[in-house]
Design a protein that fits this description.
6 helices, AhpD-like, mainly alpha, homohexamer, elongated, about 140 residues
Chain lengths: ~140, ~140, ~140, ~140, ~140, ~140
Amino acid sequence: MPLLPPVSDEAAPAEVAAVYADIRATRGTEFINNFWRVLANDPALLARTWTDLKAVMGEGTLDPLTKELIYVAVSITNGCDYCIASHSTAAKARGMTPEMLMELVSVVGMANETNRLVTGLQVPVDDAFMGPFQK
Amino acid sequence: MPLLPPVSDEAAPAEVAAVYADIRATRGTEFINNFWRVLANDPALLARTWTDLKAVMGEGTLDPLTKELIYVAVSITNGCDYCIASHSTAAKARGMTPEMLMELVSVVGMANETNRLVTGLQVPVDDAFMGPFQK
Amino acid sequence: MPLLPPVSDEAAPAEVAAVYADIRATRGTEFINNFWRVLANDPALLARTWTDLKAVMGEGTLDPLTKELIYVAVSITNGCDYCIASHSTAAKARGMTPEMLMELVSVVGMANETNRLVTGLQVPVDDAFMGPFQK
Amino acid sequence: MPLLPPVSDEAAPAEVAAVYADIRATRGTEFINNFWRVLANDPALLARTWTDLKAVMGEGTLDPLTKELIYVAVSITNGCDYCIASHSTAAKARGMTPEMLMELVSVVGMANETNRLVTGLQVPVDDAFMGPFQK
Amino acid sequence: MPLLPPVSDEAAPAEVAAVYADIRATRGTEFINNFWRVLANDPALLARTWTDLKAVMGEGTLDPLTKELIYVAVSITNGCDYCIASHSTAAKARGMTPEMLMELVSVVGMANETNRLVTGLQVPVDDAFMGPFQK
Amino acid sequence: MPLLPPVSDEAAPAEVAAVYADIRATRGTEFINNFWRVLANDPALLARTWTDLKAVMGEGTLDPLTKELIYVAVSITNGCDYCIASHSTAAKARGMTPEMLMELVSVVGMANETNRLVTGLQVPVDDAFMGPFQK
């Protein structure tokens, strides 16, 4: 059970209603998921998070599917079940196939393994890897 | 300082030398970075890790650059400095620009933020996000 | 389901019963929550943890509410659902309002984001921030 | 070494210069720390992060010192050395004494310990702790 | 609900069926747990993970029970409920008693606490601890 | 640089001096490592941590070497460089060989990998693994 109740459309103050309307318009669906409804207990936090998410996850030098895959990879590493479910759903909507999901999970598993091999053995960074964009 | 010393070419037993040779052939460079040289203190671990990495990070339904970006995202979340340096260097070699790196870091930051907003408020998973490939 | 069963009042050996009694006296309630009852499978661990918690979480140069907020912040970052639920309940009992909870979650989210921006870009520590109490 | 170079005042484009100016005005110092200078490689990320940080860390129902203590607690749990150094310096400027720092660290250590006791034994959440603000 | 459905014996392609057969032969039981059945959506990942696990977790200079205890310790620290449940069951089958489990959890809790005390205070590594096998 | 200075023998108040004396007597060496000297800025925290550590890490149903291996495994997973260095040195003093260290690191790597495979695919716990000591 969430610490605070989700905010329904009926109970939403104006600032929240405006964000809900923009989520609906941007996504082309009436559905507002629990994350936004619980976040709405703090209208300023809701508005800021939605604005940032739109700015970060849209088209850029990385395409939206790649960004969703990265989002899922982080969420797996942090063990956030909600985020894995919601962002893998979003990734599927942007074209992720089951094969791509399994490859994503393979890379995440491998990275988590080698991260700990490196850390466990205290491997020093090679000069060749220092400041890759400063050479 | 690493817990165990890196294994030089001269000191490498046959199983290690074979992996070093395959790394050189696969990558087209004489350079063997510290990760492999320290891992070589356990030849079986070295061989297994290299074999797995080649299998996981090669061309698939996800391209090698996307896989490196995911690798960096996990390494940032785990705080593995060596892995961030080595895999961002690898990503750059596969085409990552400074702009792409900054976008990657933005997504990783945003995901880490919202992972904790979700967890902190104990938001329950929406039915719409359950088992995205089971519908 | 817990790995080991909770220890009821009836089944509690003397060392456990003494801790249960002190929890009840200290908190002014008959209720003993699951954490202590499962920990009671190791009476020495139970006694040590309760003694430490009383010492750490009481009045000091930081007040008990601030300490509970810090406890919740750590529990969110670690993704410990039980700890988020129990310590946010404790924080509410010490005066945390819904507004304060939302601000706490905002700070925790922001810190998790910037922690990763810093780590992802490998930002070196400024001299001005070195050893703040050694100047 | 950071992945990308810090952006000097001389090299700063207009959007970055505007943020630098606001940091200086807000903090009443000429000093701009490395975090902002490296983030400036992505002017939009720099501007967004600074705007968010000002909104989140200012006076609210929680005071700025409490927010800095929470920031440090998260940074310790994530192992972000830069963030520990910079935000403990900020906390000291807002009144944190060495005694308060040691208490903060004690609470963070204790929370990390009990988080794992709970998780390791798979303790189920008591009904009494469910949805503390929904009763 | 898992993101992808478990693969039943009936639906298993040849490569998956071969791994299932080897799991059954190695463990001396007909039971195949959910982890392998969901992993089977990617036969190559399934085969690689099973091969690696057999190599890593068998008899070596560390005995299989010690290895399972280490596995549980990592799983607790990462908050992986499935892994805690499955590997503590495996550890019990190799001789772990309730007393040993409670001691394991105590050590994991203590390590998580002192890890954060060290990190929070930014304690520098003593020369005496550098490269323990390089002296 | 540590946030607070290490406490020398000369500057140690009575409560700290007593702990230093017990560390020396228990370990049979004059050497006091940085962890205790920095912790000594809070004599109560120092005394409590030392007392707990002696209780947890001594002989029990698990032997001291196994406990040190578990300590190192947690420290690797948390990325605590100081703790990896100090507890692998302690493990070596209790009999850990380079071969055992490499096996430990292999298990830690493997556990971190499969933890994320499980989490990434949201694998549900099998009934057979529920409450292993409650059957």
